Amino acid sequence: MTPDSRAILRAWGGARWARLTLASRGDIERLQARLWLDRMAPVVRRTPAVAHLAGRKLAAFPVVGPDEIRADFARWNTLGLDLATAEAGARDAEAGGPGEVAPGVAAGFSTGTAGARGLFLSSEAERARYIGLSLARLLPATALLGRWKAALVLRADNRLYHAVEGAGRFTFRFFPLAGDAAARAEALQAYDPDVLIAPAQVLADLARRAEARPGLPPRLRRLFWGAEPMGAGERVWIAEALGVRPDPIYQATEGFLGAPCAEGTLHLNEDALVVELEAVEGAPLFRPVVTDLYRSSQPMIRVRLDDLIEPLPGRCRCGSALRAIAPVEGRVSDLWRWPGRVVRPAEVWAALEGALGPRAEWRAEASATGVNLSLEPGAAAAKAVAAVAPLAGGRPVRVAEESPLDGGPKRRRVRWRS
Ligand SMILES: [Zn+2]
Predict the structure, then answer these.
(1) How far is ligand 1, taken at its centre, from the CA of residue 323, in Å?
(2) CATH assignment of 5-325, given 3.40.50.720, 3.50.50.60, 3.40.50.12780, 3.30.460.10?
(3) 304 near 65, Cβ under 8 Å?
């Protein structure tokens, strides 16, 4: 089930070529229009949910939520698969099996949003593309020739990621998110990767350990985080503690949405996706509506995600024409919505990092009646309350000394309970 290395190299070359040749919005839009016409028209015809719209412009398609695609799985794939078959394949993949549900097609789970696990399908060609694109966007060109070792910390393993073993001299190892953090840190240290991709909470854990035991940080060349927000102060602290700046990756069940440039700025992968931006009410932020221009086994057409997107003004110093955005700070459903005032997760992060420092664990959950802070025992509670009070608009800020970690697969520090 490993895609052949030629297919990976083709995708890698294509992604690097795109970065060199897409000089303007016009270039990007022309490429997207061509991919929509050439690649996606046949896919649309084979997708029961939208086949009746074949030949139409993208704007004519309905905007759908990930939950609608999940609920209507059989009509949102081109292989005639039903949900039960795909789920059985994904469970097999999670247990270390091939997860094959059709010739060359593997199923897998992703962490998903709001506790609902995402189910995704990938063909050999799609895995090759994913790996080629990832290598092109995340690593220098020389990494394919050298003996780079990559480590990936994730909730669930998937065949998708093992496909990277087919790429050059690259070696790759998966480390599960569940289980003992100390043991994971030891195992990472022993593996000694050049590249580490992990959720923010794992990098924070490693940074704490590195500070406690100088000399511990792995000899990393690149460091990436995804899956959950990281504070601006936390990013600086982790960079100091681990000796490498963590850069954001924007990845979802719905696709590989964004990757950082050499400046550490996140750029949307608009050479493979159309990302429409929908305004969010009450905040200078947007939510993405994503169309993947390459996926064919499980098409993603105008899928509305819950992530908060903030486009950055001007052109990034790296020169890329691909849209630059701030690292994803949270979800639309995490915005604190008081009458007449919307508070962004980034404002809450800034207030609490200012009061407690970037190392502290905390959680801030607001509802119509006020804010509940979960702080570690011994934290500077009065300072934290004073910092959050201006964001609570006169409502009470209550403190509970308890573990701010809720044990969920994703760290969600800022929440809104409606
Ligand atoms: Zn850039």
Answers:
(1) 9
(2) 3.40.50.12780
(3) yes
107 in helix, strand or coil?
strand
Beta carbons within 8 Å of 39's beta carbon, 6+ residues apart? 293, 294, 296
Strand pairing of 222-226 and 246-248? Answer: parallel
DSSP state of 385: H
Sketch the domain layout of the chain as residue ranges: 5-325, 335-416
Helices (H), 243-344: none
Integer Cα distance of 210 and 135 in angstroms: 27
Q: Ligand 1 centre from 264 Cα, in Å?
A: 7
Q: What is the pLDDT of residues 57-85, one digit of tens each?
A: 999 999 999 989 989 999 999 999 999 99
Q: If you measure from the C-alpha of residue 234 to the centroid of ligand 1, how many angstroms do you get, rounded to a whole number?
A: 21
**3-state class of 106 per DSSP?**
strand
Burial environment of residue 287 by CB neighbours within 10 A (0 to 12, 13 to 18, 19 or more): middle
Distance from Cα 145 to the centre of ligand 1, integer Å: 24
> Could you tell me the distance, in angstroms and rounded to a whole number, from the CA of residue 266 to the centre of ligand 1?
7
List residues, by chain if needed, whose CB lies under 5 Å from ion ligand 1.
261, 263, 265, 316, 318, 320
CA of 259 to the centre of ligand 1 (A): 9
Please, are residues 170 and 122 in contact by the beta-carbon 8 Å criterion? no
Burial class (CB in 10 A: 0-12, 13-18, 19+), 394: exposed
Per-residue pLDDT of the chain in tens (418 residues, 90 and over written 9)? 455 678 888 888 888 888 788 999 999 999 999 999 999 999 999 999 999 999 999 999 999 999 899 899 999 999 999 999 999 999 998 888 888 999 999 998 876 555 567 788 989 888 888 888 888 888 887 777 777 888 888 776 555 566 555 555 677 788 888 889 999 999 999 999 999 999 999 999 999 999 998 766 668 899 999 889 999 999 999 999 999 999 999 988 788 999 999 999 999 999 999 999 999 999 999 999 999 999 999 999 999 999 999 999 989 999 999 999 999 999 999 999 999 999 999 999 999 999 999 999 999 999 999 999 999 998 899 999 999 999 998 999 999 988 877 666 788 899 999 8
